[in-house]
């Protein structure tokens, strides 16, 4: 009996045969090399956590050595510029924070850097609701109580951010708009500095991804009000969702992802994506993220690229509505 392979299957087989040597060649171009994963913010924050979560295993999967390099400054611009100035061969990558890649460009906060033009998506690492916290001396144990307190004290209570255009800034401004409250914005240069003042009671309110905050909540140094999603975070089952607190559809998830500079060959980007997703399938990595309050969420380059475009458009609308700009 004769079987005829469908034309589409023949084409797919041909493409697979063609792609395999290209991926092998890409692997060879990185094997034995040192790959720098740039974190454009100080140590101790969510971007730093995400980069260090995957760096060792990611490097091994590529047959390379991966090092994390913190390059803070200029609301992340210093780190982004360092990646764009490096050779476009896959040996210098960016661990990108959602606000850096979508919110800051929406308000003109990255100068002449345009993430959708200047970077190529490799893949997402985590995608997690934000945790809303206060200092324990704030007389509010729920988001509703905090909003009521802020309405009684307009402009008196403070909230912290890691700079203009960060998710802490844009997200809290959006919350202010939704809740009809007035909080005083106190920008910092990084998460570590922010948390020190929050613990000391100099700041009343803060929102961020759970990893840097969860241990402090467990130790009683901070009080959790809610998570920003419509459902509870599986790793924080005792913390209510924003929807339970009368704030549905906030859409303030924080994600971190790997990006390559423009010009890196497509086979190298595809190889990086495949190896990153391979690392993220490791249960030990997923457990480590979960223990810190982060949720591993791999993606294809195409899905991540689409998300960057979509969220940049969304933040542009929110910034106009809330009157947020870098000026």
In the CATH hierarchy, the third-tier topology of the largest domain is known as: D-Maltodextrin-Binding Protein, domain 2
Q: Kindly provide the name of the CATH class of the largest domain.
A: Alpha Beta
SSE succession: HEHEHEHHEEHEHEHEHEEHHH
What percentage of amino acids are in beta strands? 15-25%
**Order of adjacent strands in the largest pleated sheet:** 2-1-3-10-4
What fraction, in percent, of the residue positions are helical?
40-55%
Number-wise, the strands total 10
Provide the low-confidence segments as ranges.
1-13
Mean pLDDT: 90
Q: Please outline the major beta sheet.
A: 5 strands, mixed
Walk me through this protein's architecture.
The chain has 327 residues and is of the alpha/beta class. It has two domains: 28-128 and 253-322, 3-Layer(aba) Sandwich (D-Maltodextrin-Binding Protein, domain 2), CATH 3.40.190.150; 131-245, 3-Layer(aba) Sandwich (D-Maltodextrin-Binding Protein, domain 2). It contains twelve helices and ten strands. The chain has helices spanning 7-30, 46-61, 77-85, 98-106, 115-118, 143-152, 167-179, 191-199, 214-218, 266-280, 283-291, 301-322; strands at residues 34-39, 65-70, 92-97, 119-128, 131-134, 158-161, 184-187, 205-208, 223-227, 254-261. A five-stranded mixed β-sheet has the order 2-1-3-10-4, sandwiched between helices. It has a three-stranded antiparallel β-sheet with strand order 8-5-9. The protein has a two-stranded parallel ribbon with strand order 6-7. α1 packs across α10 (266-280), α2 crosses α10 (266-280) and α4 (98-106) packs across α12 (301-322). The longest helix is centred in the N-terminal third of the chain and has 24 residues, at 7-30. This is Tripartite tricarboxylate transporter substrate binding protein. InterPro entries: BUG, Bug_dom1. Belongs to the UPF0065 (bug) family.
